[in-house]
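Inputs:
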Amino acid sequence: MLRLAALALLALTIALRAVFALDETQYGVVTQFGRPVRTLTAAGLHAKWPWQSLLTFEKRLLIYNPRPSEFLTRDKKNIVVDSYVCWRIADPNRFLQTTGDLPGAEMRLHDTVWAATAAALGNADLASLVSTRAEAVQVEELMRQVAEQCRARAAEQYGIEVVDVRIKRVTLPTQNRESVFARMRAERERIAKQYRAEGEAEAMKIRAEADREKARVLSEAYKEAERIRGDGDAESTRIYAAAYSRDPKFYKLVRTLEAYKKVIDPNTTAILSSDSELLRLLTQGRAK
Amino acid sequence: MNFDFFGGRSSSDHPHPHDHGDGGHHHGHDHSHEPGLRAPWRSGRAASFLREHFRLIALLLYFASGLYLVAPEQQAVVTRFGRVVANGVGPGLHYHWPWPVEGIVKLKALETKRLTLGVEMPDQVLGRGGGARVQFLTGDQNIIAVVVAVQYGIKDAGAYLFRAEDATRLIETAVASAFAHTIAVEPVDNLLTTGKAAAQNATLARARALLDGYGSGVHLSAVSIENVAPPEEVADAFREVASARADRDRIINEAHGYASDALAKAAGEAGKLVSDAGGYREQRINEAQGEAARFDKLLTASGQARDLTGQRLYLEAMEEILPRMKKVVIDSAGGRGLVDLGIFQPGLSPRPTPSSPK
């Protein structure tokens, strides 16, 4: 009974060492006394001899973010570039033999990527990294070249697939910042002046236009008003003419007398001849 | 991972996928109670039933542990010995083979998650501590600090879990890179004023393409530029520009105010001119009509005796006029040359007429 139990226990131990599940996130390398004998890339249940051991490696995409470092462009400008490498283990067997673990891989990636980036940026002007002319910016193309170079080397040497090398940020080194700030400040001042000048010019234009419009409106109104007055004058003249033409002489008399009433005031001194129409009777009696 | 039948929620929504949701399986039986052991408290029919069918119950409980619930906002991924056999299992009650055969991972797939980028990690090369804003170089070579927020959801749970070692970091990195490309062609004034939305859209499109290229299983729903600020060293110059812009707008507004005021006044004045002219015309015409009518009546009434009427009107007028003025009557025979001009001196009342023969 005891022997049976011991045997069962032994069998179980052996079975547990022989059968293993490989996760979707892992590669497996089966080694026999330290020598890799089998590489497993598919997840699921696998078996090995109990004396063999299993090493697992990350199968998923990894991000390596090198420290931002300073590069010199072709036009001798210092820039700080923050980049990242998206990579994965492509050949776990080779990876195991050349680099072994993730920190080791990152160290090698750093060297490879740094060299390729420095070479690529050394062949590019600053204007091809940052520029308001979108067609001048060739970062994408540059980094594609960097990635390709790294890809070939990393795959061959380390069993690493470099998926992507990209720039996360471009900035200027601390010692250049002061001069950039001075330039930015000057530019801001120019823009501020320009805004104010624009304001003044625009305001002047608006005022001038308003004045012109005002003059136009007033002169047109004057024109219209004069026309209307003319209408009034013409119409009244027509009415007068129509009425008075019935007896012009009589009209002249009546109108003259009306005018006297208006023209003569208390300060007027009239020198009347005694033979005037009014005084004739007074001076000459009822003669004739 | 805890396995909670009734809550239906896994306690770890971002599990490290090495964990296989199999830790909390319920064996549902207790080996400390051997069937042969007699205890005084284990009497009664239920206890004896349990004792007799112990193996059956244990087996049932074991298989029942394969039941699991996916909550409405969740998706589950089922793995058999580490291999994905069901991806994106939707909400509801499901079954999987119990441990150690299958495991599940549940994710809050529909939940919108949020990341903020642009707050500096400690950085020796640039000589900055953590917490500062990340500064970028814009297309016109200005230095500016930008904080970007990203919203994303999971569109493929399997890919999210098994494609990238650190999905959050992948998203962060992809968005940062996309934003770097965007800002590299953008002038600083665009970012500060009108070009924000365009920059956001460009970043979103580029980051989506990147993440899809990586097969990340992530869907970016929005990228928003939360904060754009010039470095402190030049902040006052930027503020000056903003105030100059405000000044420009104010000056222009004032001019518009002047213009609308002037035009309104001009319109009023013009209206008055025209309306005055209209009044004048009315007046002239009415006066003419009135006087014409009066003359007409007079003419009609005087009829044949028109001369006589004329005389009468003359005399009436004289009656009215002469009393209110100074008069000097000169005899026509006396000659007009002899008028004493003293009579025109103010204050003198007219002397009696020098000659009034009768």
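The mean pLDDT of chain A is 89. Flag for discussion at group meeting.
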